[in-house]
Automatic annotation (TrEMBL), chains A, B, C, D, E:
Location relative to the cell: Cell membrane
Family classification: Belongs to the anion channel-forming bestrophin (TC 1.A.46) family.
Species, as recorded: Flavobacterium crocinum
Protein's name according to its UniProt entry: Bestrophin
GO CC, one annotated term: plasma membrane
Gene Ontology MF term list: chloride channel activity
Keywords assigned by UniProt, alphabetized: Cell membrane, Ion transport, Membrane, Transmembrane, Transmembrane helix, Transport
Transmembrane annotation, as ranges: 50-70, 238-258
């Protein structure tokens, strides 16, 4: 996602990169040309009674705004729920890493602890790759034992299998007599939360807003915009097409943003910064284990640290 | 539910399958004919003062939009809550399957573990069948011991009895000395969550939006649409009936979508893909137990995997 | 609450029972007569400048719609929260009944278990009677030991005392050595949830929407409707009074529905089907204890099973 | 808070006590006089072009309604969250009182149990007094041991210190060998919830809606109302000032209600009935301990029991 | 954040400090001059048909209000979520401090307990400094042992490392035989909640509302305001520019408030009073440990105590 430093209110009016304007420009130009054509044919259209009552436009425009507001709301909620799930991922992996330190009272366990932390980090990366349909091989090889990384290649729900491995690590600690059932439960609760996070992300990724909604609103927004010139043809001076394009811009841009936010795990400019977040989780878990950490590699423009 | 690959913005305008348009077409044609009739009788209607002030229409149309927005919101919330419950079903069955592995430290338990997993899968399918009022016999026979499957035939709340069986499986593991009370509690918590999921689904399925709301809005939407021609009869040129149908389409289509989403467990095109979800849960639970899994049978158009 | 089978879109327009129309009819007729009177006195009113700018009506009508939308939202939230609480009641009583089976490993406990289940069922009925201010004596006698049922007569917060009894049943099981502290905790958590449910229902029942809101909106809606004729008197042909009544119907009906839903535990047609829900909980708990159950007595029109 | 018995729809129109009308009357009269003055100076104003386009009023009025709707929502949410917190207070104190009975298996503990219950009741009253900035001395003396009540005088966060005392009571029970760590945890969880309730109430009481919002909306509402006459001066007959006052009433009254609900723990007529709720909690806790209870002292008009 | 004592409704109209007006004044003056210029050039503009249909303005203004309402909602939710997180911080630190008293039965532990409390207070301050990007050195030196405070200098995620230290304090108490696993779990749960709070605050601070939204709305609001004069040029008397500025003020001020609330942890006048809250938490924790506390240093204008 794109995050800019605050500029003053005046410069912000001419912001270019942070907006969906570039992508919408061709459509808006088309509308501008169309409106200008309507201005040219004004006498013909008025003569043949081919204009529309502007009252119909007010009525319909506001109706459209209400429905678009609904779509907007739903998309933003999905975006924010996705963000919350990744926030919970940060919290729970931190809690688990902390518990591996303060609940296991054994100095020899330090190397084993690194194994646990690496499993946690691998869990995060494998979730990221699953959500983006990218290849997790490189990251998993870097973090896991060769054999286990290899066996994961064929696995469809990788984060779940890594989660099982985390459970097994704790099982072993119990078998070694380092923890009792009660302490195992403390870990177990956080593992359950990780399971909820995986499922939550899968839910958002696999179930978009019902397609019918998207089609209905998309269609209505564009038909509406291209009918606007007929509504204002009577009063249409040479300045009006620009107003029409401005009105259309707001409707069309909101629909476009809502469409981008709908799938927050994608790679469009307004989607979540999964790369930075994964790297940040890796850093904070390493710091908890007294490892040295580097500054975030990924562009600091994309995430406020 | 119908999920399409993203097409470009222009093609999306002419989408046919993903919309409720086909089902609404007859009604909209009726409205078109009615509007055209009003155009024909324009002089007669104006003479007898049988037209309506357009201000009344703006006022009322926006009011209607606000109320329809409310209905829409509520329906979508039900849809999304249904989806969340099935997401939680995935998470909790996964957690239980993982716990049956990492909380029971006994190699001999492997065959018994398959029994547990099968109970979980049977639980999912029986819930699906209960919500859709379909016959669960085939699925239960495939997954459960013959005797138990047979005894379930007469049972009214099947998922609850399967849940009791899951509880008994854990009870036996405790009686066998494989787990203690504390560990039993860890299972128990997830069983409680499954109980909440069953009840949550039953709640949505058994309690629709108060019928009075539906009647009121349905009635208002249609009466409104069929009165629209009287509002625009004064300015009604030959182009206006098409505008009226376009406005009506938005209102009527939104009402239709809201009506479909209200019961998310049905089999209408916009309802939840329970079949795919049940199959997906089966797959991920089997994978957790190191079983080979097949690609999803159900049409991949209906669920993004 | 009234639940009808889906009829087709056309028949639904003429639905009578499922709507609040019957109750509102006298008021709407009054408004119709009033509007017709305004039509008759049109010349007099215009002469004395006793009509109102229609712009004021558009402005005010939409404002009213927004505020009514808020009232509607709040009322529906109360209705749905009430439903959720009764859904949670189902889930938690089922969980407790299941726990009484799978957490207590003793064959002799079977008759005692029935006692526990009966306490749970009595809890449900006593809550229903408290919320509806009806007499719980009959139900409690049917389910509880005579002596205890008798002692409950004088009690003001009956469900809470039954809850204490459930706690004491578990205390006895522990004293008998059937369960340990850990298992007692598992029961205890679900008892806490039952306590939350009682309090939640009492909260909704004892704290309506601030009365000032109701008065303000009620007053505004009716004054608005009876001023409508003055707004349209200029353009008021013989068809307009019917339009006015139609607009008024939507506002007035929404206010009436919101008013009914506000107290979801009442006995008005749109309130929750507490009778059926209590009976359903009784059935599912009995089935869990391998008892035979009968079909629901209460009219299946009122609850989808 | 004011709760009235339902009257019929007609009488409700003339409700006086349950509304904020009395408090607003002077301002509305001022507006009426102002409007009448505008009617008198109509020719002068029109001549000097000192009237305003009514379109600006429609636009702005609806905008204002949307923003006021937001303010309203937020205020009501605070009111309802406050109510939920006091509902949770009821639930958790009941749960703790029940646990003091069913988790401690010792007949001698009965007098000590009364001490515990009194601490719970004192907790409730001290929270009430803290939220209302009233003196808790009398209530604390009535309920607590003299010495402890005396020491609380100097304490700033009284409920928290009482909470610590509750924790110490349980600590003593454990030291006496009446409960083990596991049972202590069951109490501890409910104490944590009480801590959350105190903090939640403090949060609502200490952090009002950002003052800038209140100022902005207050200012806009009143300026808007006093500009209304200029918008309708052209069409302003002798009936219009009354319409203007009616429109203004709705806006101004909603702002006033929102302002009252914002701080739900105050003593204004629409605030929460903390007195009755505290008394009700005292009653139900005493009944749980088999004490006789009296009917609620506080006016039954204020709380539905 | 600025909190004022309630003034009467009339004085509130002229409030200056509590509003964003000062900051917006230059822009509004610019708009006023621009509007006056339009009034001067009225004949020229009308002649060349350079005015805009006012219907377009009504339509667009309401649309804008709906979208601005959405932005507003989201910003306020972030503000309130931030407040809730700091409220939870208060609750959980209080709970932990109480547990360090009532769960550890040892008189000698009193000095160690102060260490624990100081760690909690240091946790709060370090979170505050992290969120505000200020230097925590002074506060940490005051509260922690020199050596540990020194080692924290290099640490990036300070609150997390202090949290680990809290975990280690409990680990030590267990190693000393003061508590068992079960009691450790009770602490552990509250530590998990602290971890959630840190992550929640980081989430809000690091992920603003998608920048595209802000740009789109900012741009639309200002362009809209500067086009208003062209919409009212036809009816534009000398009074209208003031109306236009008044309308613009509402839109622009709401956008400005929403922009301030978006990042609730900043130091703008409407942001959260983190300083006072941190000081208040310190006070209440010290009081729990029977220390004397001073009145809040920070200006009581900023927080209601």
């Amino acid at each position: 996602m794109i995050i800019k430093k605050k500029t003053n209110w005046f410069k912000m009016l001419f912001e270019w990169n942070g907006s969906v304007l570039p992508q919408l420009l061709p459509r808006l130009l088309l509308l501008l040309l169309f409106s200008l054509a309507v201005v040219c044919f004004k006498p013909f259209l008025l003569e043949h009674n081919l204009h529309i009552n502007p009252a119909a436009f007010t009525l319909f425009g506001i109706t459209l705004a209400i429905f678009l507001g609904f779509r907007n709301n739903v998309s933003y909620d999905r975006f924010w729920e996705g963000r919350k799930l990744w926030g919970a991922l940060l919290n729970d992996t931190r809690s688990l890493a902390r518990q591996s330190i303060s609940l296991i009272n054994d100095k020899e366990y330090e190397t084993k602890r690194d194994e646990f932390t690496n499993l946690l980090i691998a869990f995060v990366y494998s979730l990221k790759h699953q959500l983006r349909h990218t290849d997790s091989e490189e990251d998993l090889k870097r973090l896991l034992e060769n054999e286990f990384a290899e066996s994961l290649k064929e696995v469809r729900y990788k984060p779940i299998i890594i989660l099982r491995e985390l459970g097994n690590w704790i099982k072993k600690a119990k078998a070694d007599g380092k923890i009792d059932s009660v302490t195992q439960l403390a870990f177990e609760e956080n593992l359950n939360k990780l399971s909820d996070i995986v499922g939550g992300c899968e839910r958002i990724a696999s179930t978009p807003i019902p397609y019918t909604y998207s089609v209905l609103l998309h269609r209505t927004v564009y038909i509406y915009c291209f009918m606007l010139p007929f509504g204002f043809v009577e009063t249409l001076g040479w300045i009006t097409p620009f107003i029409i394009v401005f009105i259309a811009y707001t409707f069309v841009a909101l629909e476009a943003i809502a469409d981008e936010l709908e799938d927050p795990f994608g790679k469009q400019p307004n989607d979540l910064a999964l790369d930075t977040m994964a790297e940040m989780i890796e850093n904070t878990l390493l710091e908890l284990n007294d490892k040295k950490i580097n500054p975030l590699k990924t562009n600091s423009d994309y995430y406020i640290t």
